[in-house]
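ok so I'm stuck.
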Amino acid sequence: MKKHLLALSLAATTALTGTSAFANTGTINFEGKITSSTCPIDVVNPGDGSVGNLIKMGSIEASRFTAVGQEYSGKAFVLRVKGGAGCNYNPTGNTASVQFNGASDTSGDYFAVTPTFDGAKGVVINIKDQKGVALKPGADSPDYNLNDTGSTDLLFNAYYRSTSATVTAGVASADVQFIVAIN
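replied:
not stuck anymore, here's the structure
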């Protein structure tokens, strides 16, 4: 048995050695850009001016939701694009759009609350732009005009929205990422 394994090992080594004689070379091109700076973005609670990535939606009684499509507990939040020195906006446009990404509900129109053991059911989070238009997950917001000499506040609102006539009480939180594109 040892003789067969040795022969197999020698055959594999010979096969590998034979293929290395036919090796080719190639080139990999890396492409990118190092920018001088970016425009910092803060998440701001306009109610108290606090800065951070936690938007406290508050509590709402499940019994208030009695039909599909009802919205409660709207919470304003701002994405503050710090302008001025160091922020190189497009000189022809000076606008920004925002894309929110996260787990969507089954309709694809709203943000699903994180499913947990003690999580609420029959409710989603609806994010609206400054004009009150709902933003679907992955969709770009309308353009916001940027102030090229100082900070610009991009205003949004978040609401709980019922997806069934009966909402079950529980934790109703979601993680949503954002991308601000300077146009």
